[in-house]
Amino acid sequence: MKKIEKVIFIEPRAPDYHVFSKWGLPRLGCVLLATILRKHGIHSVVYVESKGAEIDLQDVLSADAIGITTITSTAPRAYEIADIAREHGIPVFMGGPHVSFLPEEALEHCDYVIRGEAEDIIYPFIKALEIGEGLEMISGISMKMNGVSYHSPTRCNCKDLDSLPFPDFSLIQGVKRYPITPVMTSRGCPYDCSFCAVTGMFGRRYRFVSPRRVVEGLQSIVPPADPNWVFFYDDIFNAHPKRTKELLRLMISEKVTPHWTAQVRTEVAKDKELLDLMEESNCYACYVGLESINPQTLKAYNKRQTPEDIQECIEKLHEHKIKVHGMFVFGSDEDDVHTIRQTAKFAKKNNIETVQFMILTPLPGSRYYDDLQRQDRLVTREWSLYDAHHVVFEPKKMSIWELQTETFRALMKFYSWWQVIKGFINFDLHNSLLRVYGRRLIVKWRKRNREFLELLGELTKSAGKMRPTMESFSSRARWLELMAKRAAGDIRERITILGSRAREYSRQRSKSDPHNLTHSV
Question: Are strands 112-114 and 141-145 parallel, antiparallel or unpaired?
Answer without folding.
Answer: antiparallel
